Amino acid sequence: MPQGNVAAWSSMISGYAMNSKVDVARKLFEVMPDKNEVTWTAMLTGYTRSGRINEAAELFKEMPVKPVAACNEMIMGFGLDGEVGKARLVFDQMREKDDGTWSTMIKIYERKGFELEVLALFSLMQTEGVRPSFPSVISVLSVCGSLASLDHGRQVHSQLVRSQFDIDIYVSSVLITMYIKCGDLVTAKRVFDRFSTRDIVMWNSIIAGYAQHGFGEKALEVFHDMFSSSIAPDEITFIGVLSACSYTGKVKEGLEIFESMKSKYQVDPKTEHYACMVDLLG
Fold first, then answer.
1. PPR repeats located where (predicted)?
2. Is residue 4 scored above 60 in pLDDT?
3. What global pTM score does this model have?
4. So where are the chain's domains?
């Protein structure tokens, strides 16, 4: 193969590396006359995306310059391999970080169950004046809900308002879920009511939240409000509604709703729905 220029070689290496031909990519990499940051990062990414983290780590050590993109790949690679400590070491040694660096480290902590570390890292972001990215916000809200940490959740909510992420339907769905898990159904409903157009996740979250906390009547009210929207209930909706009927002792209404699943909404009852009916009729 003619030597060509660096961009052409880098493109070839990237193409092979990202199409499960990492060893072919490495052979090209070894004979390439000149390498730049893009070349090194492409080869490194091939290893990390193939799960060959040890080879990625060796290559990372050899890199004359470690660009942010390469460091982010190593953080993700180490994290997915369960080497969370090594991922954090790469993070801490970086002189410059971008949005992807912070969100990747936070996501790794969340996935591996390091929930307190997620909150600590998010706090560090605020201390350093880093504007949180969309993925970071989602991860932190999920952790706040899992820990039922209402104080942290409120702090994140305030950050959302400042960053104008609170106007996003998906973010608000996660925000509603967080407040519900923390037991603050009043604020959850307040967030829900801000939107004239709601997706199925928002409807399901508020219905299930009311049902799980023993507010069956309110869950049924929201379910009936759903009829005036263009959103059709799905199987998750019916789990929440049937649970609400069980909590409130509304046997007749529960039976009618159960019958309507298939006949009106073409939703096939699953094991969870039958379990709700057993509770309702028990």
1. 5-35, 36-70, 98-132, 199-233, 234-264
2. no
3. 0.81
4. 1-96, 122-194, 196-282
